[in-house]
Amino acid sequence: MVTSIAIAPEEHRARCDALLERVAEQGLSGVVLFDPYYVLYYAGFAFAPTERPIALVVGPGGERALVVPRLEVEHAEAKAMFDRVEHYDEYPGEPRSETAIERALSALGLSGTIGADQDGYPWILGYRGPTLSELSGAKVVRIVDKIEEQMAVKSEAEIGLIRESVRWGNLAHRLLQRYTRPGVTDTE
């Protein structure tokens, strides 16, 4: 087994496809995710949540769009696993985040009933935007249970990453034990 420190883009795509299969019986037109851990799991895109909304939109055919503020465009495009990257300018610029999310929903054909981890980007750090249901006019169905069930079962690549993490954690603790002495500070 080849050790890697990243999940392959093919596995991220397979995760999105598997999620769509899991929610297919609910008649959803697609999925929208806002939670940073869910976006990382399904798209490999890491971000710290701020007042600038970020959303992963997955269409019924598996097409993936990431909606990001302009500051994150190159970061998103570097991942090279999205079918499209929609962006918006910082407030009060145009287009606004809501417009970029609407464009992604429309481009990927999400309407009617949409699966989501929550009904819109959370109101944090001053962000006070509309809910996903208000923005899209669609019925939003929470699918967190399906997401969590999928994340609970680890792939071979994830197990490899866990093993690699254990190696480094073990080394760190051995060094900590070797160099820790009573009365010595962290820098010493």
Key phrases:
6-stranded mixed beta sheet; 7 helices; 43% helix
3D architecture notes:
- By secondary structure, the chain is α/β, with parallel strands linked by helices.
- The protein is 43% helix and 14% strand.
- It has seven helices and six strands, in the order αβαββαβαβαβαα.
- The chain has a six-stranded mixed β-sheet with strand order 4-3-2-1-5-6, sandwiched between helices.
- A hairpin with a 5-residue loop joins β2 and β3.
- The radius of gyration is 20 Å and the shape is globular.
- The termini are far apart.
- The model has no long low-confidence stretch (mean pLDDT 91).
Topology, element by element:
Layout lengths: L8 H15 L7 E3 L2 H8 L11 E4 L5 E6 L3 H7 L4 E5 L8 H12 L4 E4 L15 H5 L2 E4 L1 H9 L3 H24 L9
Parallel strand pairs: 1-5, 3-4, 5-6
Antiparallel strand pairs: 1-2, 2-3
Question: What's the SSE pattern?
Answer: HEHEEHEHEHEHH
- What is the spatial order of strands in the main beta sheet? 4-3-2-1-5-6
Helix tally equals 7
Number of strands: 6
Roughly how many Å apart are the termini?
Answer: 39 Å
The Rg value, from CA coordinates, equals 20 Å
Q: Which runs of at least 5 residues are low in confidence (pLDDT < 50)?
A: none
| Gross geometry | globular
Largest sheet: 6 strands, mixed
Strand content: 5-15%
Average pLDDT over all residues? 91
Helix content: 40-55%
Structural class: alpha/beta
In short:
With 188 residues, the chain is an alpha/beta fold.
